[in-house]
């Protein structure tokens, strides 16, 4: 399945991408590999129990922090959990109904600073003030997706588990991790070595593309 | 710069990724290429004016539609604009203060159906009802990032221009495109062949990583 999606992606790219012929980095292979990663990414809830190293998690977070960010505010913070004995306290008895949650090697809690502290826009030399950041949720969405794609590219598995906007999920996480008032837990992402049971979905819906008007 | 980031990404992966040795798809190269794409992605606002083909845009939207989606609702729709004479009507006189906006080859308006029409959760056999979708904004964030990474991987350039949550931006776009009541324009993404003036930012902030507690 993975190989098939890779080959389909490669064929589609070869058929349509005529750009960047003189690029020193081999772009067709970058495009093929990136498309294969994007098309192969799936929600992985079943893990073998093998460990993922701290250095790999750091590398995944390097990808996360490269996400676009409105006005370059970069509101993200990450809490990396490896102690499964704390999961029940943090995520509740049912671990969000994910039986395999505890078989993951780590859970990363993606958090956002929901405020910006900077001089007022109309007075860049003035004293810093704290105001709401209207784009933190969008930044965190892109940041989480970067992380998930890096996970997939390394042959690992993860699943985006929403915390925000559900108070019954984000409130206990915020409380148990003693997060500052201005820090919102956005999602919880368990990571592990996939058993192979989870497969990507075909979501291609050409009818969702509208040309020039609705 | 691009080559340097690629080499840094490759070196980091070689140093830390020991997984998937027996994978039939060449995973180390997938990981290197995907990480290079993620680290090289940048907001590109300067375009040469060269055209990007319809088939390339379709391929980019294939990547967008492969994004994760809460409960697999896939709330995204895309309006592809190529007629620059309409941009002033849609985006206002200043084109969101982006002087190069009109030099792009196309602008894709990422939209979301903010509702879900399905049987009630507590009565899966019952009559379909329409209710708000609490996760459309997160899904659209991931969807936009997939698109931007596919753009980067093909040597093209694009920039995420927020419409939501700003009424002064999304309201005129919604009105000029005559979008249904339940469809929200989320962001506008111009695409073109980059002049090379725009470069990626280094956003690595290890102090944003917290282990086991804040």
| Sequence of secondary-structure elements of chain A | HHHEHEEEHEEHEE
Segments of chain A where pLDDT lies below 50 for 5+ residues? 17-28
Biggest sheet features of chain A: 5 strands, antiparallel
The number of helices of chain A is 6
Structural class by secondary-structure content of chain A? alpha+beta
Give me the oligomer status. Answer: homodimer
Query: On the 0-100 scale, what is the average pLDDT of chain A?
Result: 88
Estimate the strand proportion of chain A: 15-25%
In the CATH hierarchy, what is the class of the largest domain in chain A? Alpha Beta
Shape of chain A: globular
Q: Indicate the radius of gyration of chain A in whole angstroms.
A: 20 Å
Distance between the termini of chain A: 34 Å
Number of strands of chain A: 8
Approximately how much helix is present in the residues of chain A?
A: 25-40%
Which two chains share the most extensive interface? A-B, 97 and 97 residues
The CATH architecture of the largest domain in chain A comes to 3-Layer(aba) Sandwich
Explain what you see.
The structure is a homodimer of 214-residue chains. The radius of gyration of chain A is 20 Å and the shape is globular. Chain A has helices spanning 2-16, 27-40, 54-65, 87-91, 136-153, 167-176; strands spanning 76-81, 106-113, 115-118, 129-132, 157-158, 161-162, 183-192, 209-211. By secondary structure, chain A is of the alpha+beta class. In chain A, strands 1, 2, 5, 6 and 7 form a five-stranded antiparallel sheet that branches. Chain A folds into two domains: 1-35, no CATH class; 43-197, NADH Oxidase (3-Layer(aba) Sandwich), CATH 3.40.109.
